[in-house]
Write a structure and sequence with these properties.
By secondary structure, this protein is mainly beta. A 16-stranded antiparallel beta barrel has the order 1-2-3-4-5-6-7-8-9-10-11-12-13-14-15-16. The chain is globular. This is Porin domain-containing protein. Keywords: Signal.
Length: 341
């Protein structure tokens, strides 16, 4: 706990300095907080496992008369899956998943601190039910995890600077830079072996639109970084994604071309993920598939299905099953409960 406080101190000091520097005419100060807890019983080929994970986010925002907003956001919890914007992991019993300063204006949003990069924020759009197995904990349980996740390689929650434009005619552009793959507090390398990148640049483009009864979202992301290990390839990852909504139905696809990003040179990988879901009131169902094509014909496939039932407020029960094939073959099942507040 002392180590966490020591590492948070520079960021908190910067926040205090910025708050002091704001005009005294600021007319609105607001504080918001939210949390999520997730517990599950998991069954795989190696037996049973129990896990619990949580995250609590607090955000203080100061808005001036001119409309300029400054906020400090901190998420404390058990870590981050590094694959979704609001899914807690179990990287550590207590850590700061994310902590960042945000400046909001008519010209866009500027963030400094531990936060997902521009490419991930643009392409992480597939709908998630309560279990979230498409990007969930099963990869930590199964004897064979995917060689790359459905969003490919990026900067995770490394300390960075991020800028996103306002959404204009449905379009939003983002760009981010992280000096190296390291965060203020969380040990992100624990979940991303071979995390030796430096000078990580990300760019993301996202478009949202409607056509008659259909709503859709399209996105592209690009990540580049230099490897500090001569045996591993430099990061160069391209991501393309699309999502379509019609009533309670949705369908989406994400394609990633990672090359040999963060892998042994020449060991290239591409990934395609498809997902379909349906939600009707408190009930939801989803089907998904992820296929990874590795160099030298080493392929990986995972198929998943999930059911969810919102039993009370924001508390949901989930039942998920995943079949994976690649290296080893097997099944993973999860019975979980998730509470948001």
């Amino acid at each position: 706990m002392d180590v966490i406080l020591v590492r948070l101190l520079p960021c908190l000091s910067a926040a205090a300095a910025l708050l002091v520097a704001l005009p005294a005419t600021a007319d609105t100060v607001a504080f918001d907080w939210r949390g999520v807890g997730h517990g599950a019983i998991v069954r795989s080929g190696d037996g049973h496992d129990l896990y619990g994970t949580y995250a609590i986010t607090g955000e203080g925002t100061l808005t001036t008369d001119s409309g300029l907003g400054l906020s400090l956001t901190t998420t404390l919890g058990a870590g981050d899956y590094q694959k979704s914007l609001d899914r807690p992991g179990r990287n550590d019993p207590l850590t700061a998943n994310e902590i960042f300063l945000t400046v909001n204006s008519a010209w866009g949003r500027l963030r400094i601190g531990d936060e997902d990069g521009a490419a991930k924020r643009a392409t992480d759009m597939l709908p998630l039910l309560a279990g979230g197995q498409m990007d969930g904990l099963w990869t930590d349980i199964a004897p064979t995890a995917p060689p790359i996740d459905h969003l490919g390689r990026d900067s995770d929650d490394a300390t960075k600077i991020l800028y996103e434009t306002p959404r204009v005619m449905g379009l939003r552009l983002g760009i981010s830079y992280a000096p190296k793959r390291d965060s203020l507090v969380e040990n992100i390398a624990q979940q991303t072996p071979g995390a030796l990148d430096r000078d990580l640049w990300e760019a993301g483009l996202n478009y949202q639109g409607d056509w008659q009864a259909l709503s859709y979202e399209l996105a592209a992301g690009y990540v580049t970084a230099e490897s500090r290990n001569p045996l591993l390839g430099d990061t160069e990852s391209l991501k393309l994604a699309g999502l379509l909504f019609y009533g309670g139905f949705s369908g989406g696809v994400v394609y990633v071309e990672d090359g040999d990003s963060g892998r042994l040179k020449g060991d290239e990988a591409t990934s395609t993920t498809m997902m379909a879901s349906y939600e009707n009131g408190p009930y939801g169902a989803a089907l998904w598939w992820q296929g990874v094509d590795l160099d030298m014909s080493r392929d990986y496939n995972a198929y998943g299905t999930g059911l969810s039932w919102r039993v009370l407020g924001e508390t949901s029960l989930s039942l998920d099953a995943v079949r994976y094939e690649g290296g080893r073959r097997g099944w993973t099942g999860m019975l979980g409960v998730e509470a948001r507040f």
